[in-house]
């Protein structure tokens, strides 16, 4: 059970089919993609001597080489650690060090800033960029056969920030990702060879995890020339390539829809847009359906059960005649076919239909635990159930509506920002006594980061500079509010709900 077998199979069955495209230009067919993965695997195992289970980190923008690197690592029996390319070099080095990655593949423009922080990592044996001569040499290594992996062997180590601010490695096994893909076919969409997935969101996250469904069907993988989300570019690609499928955060859907409305362009080149990762407002999905038609499917998932907790199907989204249609499109849909989803009270007992509680999940996609973190694993996986930290209510028809995020994560432009991490940086300023960070709804970004500060003689510019020094740009507060005191409960805990009302 090695996920790399799906590429082997696709290449044997359909060697000449286009596999990887840059914009509308075919770069690799399936034969070549598999051959390159097999050779890179040969380099990792043969030349570098990596042993099955060792980690290979990828800190790269979306790139035509991303897929061959993912599959090379699995082919060689290794574990991939995809790192968000937008992170601060110190954050990248923390993840690469925590995972004890032996090799790092990095985008050319990111390499210089990473040199110093990476120098301190003893386990790291090689850092390569796809433009290096050394990468071309690696591609000349002798191809190897895929290494056998057991279903529970680790495939993908996905770092997610915790409330403590320290990122935790979510361990996703070959079984987890295979089940995630089966659920895609069962509950999200069917895929044919004529389809194309376009990576408009980072391949280090959910968008990249959707590659499996398209490799399994020998369909096309499109990396936009911009490397990311540009509505005009997507529209051009949809016309040129057709049957375009993508995963998008709700804010991206909103921008694409307004672009289509403004230009009056037809949307028929889009086959399926899967949205999720943050709340989609009812008005926005109605608008999107009106402009683009029934091409949408919603998913609710989290790193700990990748892309797979519930799904709201195309049919449910389109069924306007249903008396509960409005409630349904405001929900995240029904449990995926290979998991059970339940809403529980603080004791862990199921609550009645319609009542609010914490969403818990068990089944084939649920992670095996957090990397080298048994305490966090024990807190999150209890009695076989994954505690999601999300609050929601399930109605009598099995539709789940998320009410709030108990973890207070801010989701801005599709990226998760963990308040505690930002607060810790702000508190480094000698004039800051207390800091509390929340998300404020924003038409463009979904949410923006707002920081409440208690302190003396502190200027927003100084705080901004401090943040730029320590954390990724996208995490820094867009607004500061200077207050006399923070609202707190009797235990001294800051009341974030009260702060949100204030904002
Ligand atoms: P991550 O682990 O980074 O994928 O973040 C997962 C979190 O994003 C979940 O626990 C939810 O709080 C939120 N989330 C994911 N999908 C949805 C969705 N469809 N609607 C609302 N929130 C979502």
UniProtKB/TrEMBL annotation:
Give, as one word, the top-level EC class: ligase
- Any idea where the AMP-binding enzyme C-terminal domain is? 421-493
GO function term, MF aspect, one: long-chain fatty acid-CoA ligase activity
Identify the residues that the record assigns to the AMP-dependent synthetase/ligase domain, covering every copy. Answer: 9-371
Q: What is its EC number?
A: 6.2.1.3
Swiss-Prot/TrEMBL keywords: Ligase
- UniProt cross-references to PROSITE patterns, sorted A to Z: AMP_BINDING (PS00455)
InterPro entries, per the entry: AMP-bd_C, AMP-bd_C_sf, AMP-binding_CS, AMP-dep_synth/lig_dom, ANL_N_sf, ATP-dep_AMP-bd_enzyme
Q: Which domain of life is it from?
A: Bacteria
Name of the featured protein = Putative long-chain-fatty-acid CoA ligase
What organism does the UniProt record list as the source?
Answer: Methylibium petroleiphilum (strain ATCC BAA-1232 / LMG 22953 / PM1)
